[in-house]
Amino acid sequence: MKVRNVLLVAVSAMLLVIWALACVAEESESEEIKPVLLVIDVQNIWMPMMAEEDVASAPQKINESIALFRELGYPIIAVYHTDPERGPEPGTEPFEFDDSIAITDVDQKVIKNYPSSFVKTDLEEMLRENDRNVVFLCGLSATGCVLATYFGAMEREFTTLMVADALISPDAEHTKTVADICYSMTLEKVRETLEEPLQE
Known about the structure:
Layout: H1 2-29, E1 35-40, H2 52-72, E2 76-81, E3 108-112, H3 123-129, E4 134-140, H4 145-155, E5 159-168, H5 172-181, E6 184-185, H6 187-199
Parallel strand pairs: 1-2, 1-4, 2-3, 4-5, 5-6
């Protein structure tokens, strides 16, 4: 009789543990994806320094990424780089985004002085205030400021991904390497991921 009771208690305890683990798994799986797109440093001053292969293809993918986020109602943040001593000066033509990039006045903007978009800016505060938990990155340079921002976002515990075909750097092979070694998605996969919750 005692052995039977012990077995019943043990089985009950095991079932409770399994139930608790299932609840935790269900809760984490049901966490809503709240994405934001960072479009980094696609400024007139930097574009001529980038690889022709990247410049020929990535701007279209950047614009398609912007269009996707607009379509789904997700925020877009344009990030600009300037050095207080060397420029480019905000408001000047070299500072502005290339005309081919579909950033508008309604998009939020961040101006940075360091490679990471999080260093001495209010970017993290903006993301927290808007309850964003997934950060998608595109722009330039894949080997510089985009990469620094990628690690900065991860360090702050955001889920972080690069849009693999919307990256630009001075060397196209290096761009591919960065996309390979980081968590990256093609734009098509980004679309699938973001549209899926809307279809359920």
